[in-house]
Amino acid sequence: MQAFGPPYEGPLRTLVDSHIETYGGQHRVSAQSTAGSLYPRGGPMLDPSRLRLHDYVPFVKGSGQARALSPGRLRESEPEKRHGGQFGAGPPHSPKLKEVPKAHELEMRLYTFSMFGMPRLPPEDRQHWEIGKGSDSSLTVEKSWKELVPGHKEMSRELCHQQEALWELLTTELIYVQKLKIMTNLLAAGLLNLQRVGLLTEVSVETLFGNVPSLIRAHQSFWEEVLKPTLEKTRASGLPLDPVSMQDGFLAFSQRFQPYVQYCLRVKQTMAYAREQQDNNPLFRTFTQWCEKHKRSGRQMLGDLLIKPHQRITKYPLLLQAVLKRSPEARTREALNAMIAAVESFLRHINKQVRQGEEQESLAAAAQRIGPYEVLEPSSEEMEKNLRPFSNLDLLSPMLGVAPEHTRQLLLEGPVRVKEGREGKLDVYLFLFSDVLLVTKPQRKADKAKVIRPPFMLEKLVCRPLRDPNSFLVIHLTDFQCVSSALIVHCPSASDRARWLEKTQQAQDSSVFSTRQSLPQPTILVTGGRVITIITNHGGLPKGGGRAAR
Asked: Each residue of 155-190: pLDDT tens digit?
């Protein structure tokens, strides 16, 4: 591996001595041999004031085939007068003048990591980040399944293809675990060690690699308890690999790989955070370039590593399908079909969780744009004071009467003009959610929209097109199927009207309303001068919208 450049003698001597102490005295280097071992034989001694950081590379957003430029390195600078300063202007991505001391210290630390290896994590970090090295010895396989099956030459072509597919499942599992460990043993360990000396403290290791250790432990357990026993059975007997022996392990797939739910929920934010750090943090960019060139990394880039868990978990059905395709026996096919069904069920669960998370984020973003709730104009301060506790609209609260997995969604929004009663037309901004229609007024100074009419619940809403091709009538009903309020909505165009009517009808016909459990409503009876309140459970909704009156 190419060294990160020989730093100058004075500070490095102290730094090397401190790292020898940090590493527990594993490398005994004398004062005389230190300098000679760090510089090329007969090489010149460089002036520290003439060393500068060079060649930063932005975060690569493409696929794994994209390659970064060479990592940052120390170069001897041109004469100071040529650049107009001690450090010169430098390339466009060079750090500012005040950043140079930290940049130089970072390169010295990375150079030391290259020479002596990565220091062990402090005790407070080991429990989460450190993966036992002893378990790596079992994560090995032969070069080919044919080494384990002496009679492979007499096997049918189809059975050989089945064994190849099984072997791909086993070998790619080991390769994947090794790539996961790049994130913990190199990237996370490197960041944590640098943060111990005050470098890159602004970077959150938890945000980048939060539960990757949990993924590694899940796969190590999967290997030890499911895949390795199948391999050991073949090693001992010389018989072909048997996919049926993996059935129980794959049937418990969702329990084994629960950490993937959390990882997949956060991967989008993780990728965005990594890209932001790469674009805006030159020191972090230098660190990731060093990691990419490290012999442990296999030239894997940070963005490619972060997306690999998502790619791996979705590949299992394809790997099992390849085995199934080459398995003619009914018993084997039945087992493989059950295994594929279990994996796909877990993937659907992950997709559902991710979709709900995205919907919740979208709803939160929409709620941020909706400000005060001012549907009434109080006639006095006393009235305003009493109304204040009831003048809040929480769009993030669960929808009433539906299962928790149904999240409120923003379906449509846009400017329209409304006419209420005999008053003139008013410019407003409508928000159509999956259960409610909001009439708001934009506030330019606050960059928010205030709610100026009570929310129109879609289950009690009736929309009717008018003769004007750009207009439609909105009728809001009470529980007694009586008109509560009505608005004439004037859209900018006929196509806009069609879109509002279509989206509203789709929301009312959706599964959210078809599965809605009606809330108990009080029925008030008067008998003999006494008021009796009876709680009854009303049935479903009539087709025209609105709650059935009883």
From this structure: 999 999 999 999 999 999 999 999 999 999 999 999
Q: Shortest CA distance to 240 belongs to which of 150, 158, 360, 366?
A: 150
The amino acid sitting at 417 is: R
pTM, full prediction: 0.68
Half-sphere exposure for 57 (CA within 13 Å, toward CB)? 19
User: pLDDT tens-digit profile of 25-66?
Assistant: 333 333 333 333 333 333 334 343 333 333 333 333 333 333
Let me know the angle formed at the C-alpha of 242 by 236 and 244, rounded to the nearest 5 degrees. 130
Secondary structure string (H, E, C) spanning 97-142: HHHHHHHHHHHHHHHHHHHHCCCCCCHHHHHHHCCCHHHHHHCCCC
Residue located via tokens 């993924």: 215
How many C-beta atoms lie closer than 10 Å to residue 476's C-beta? 21
Q: Check: CB of residue 170 under 8 Å from CB of residue 227.
A: yes
CA-closest candidate to residue 285, choices 110, 117, 121, 48: 110
Q: How far apart are CA 441 and CA 426, in angstroms?
A: 9
**Rg (the chain; Cα; Å):** 33
Rounded to 5 degrees, what angle do the CA atoms 488, 492, 495 make?
95
Residue 111 half-sphere exposure, CB side, CA atoms within 13 Å?
22
Q: Of 253-262, 496-505, 522-531, which gets the smallest average pLDDT?
A: 522-531
Please provide the distance, in angstroms rounded to a whole number, between the alpha carbons at the two ends of the chain: 81
The SS3 assignment for 187 reads helix
Q: Give burial (CB, 10 Å; 0-12/13-18/19+) of 531.
A: exposed
Give the integer Cα–Cα distance in Å for 187 and 297. 9
Handedness of CA 357, 358, 363, 364 (dihedral sign): positive
The neighbouring-strand residues paired with 436 are 457
Pick left, alpha or beta for residue 101 (phi over 0 → left; psi -120 to 50 → alpha; otherwise beta): alpha
| CA–CA separation, 293 and 439 (whole Å) | 57
Sign of CA dihedral 84, 86, 90, 95: negative
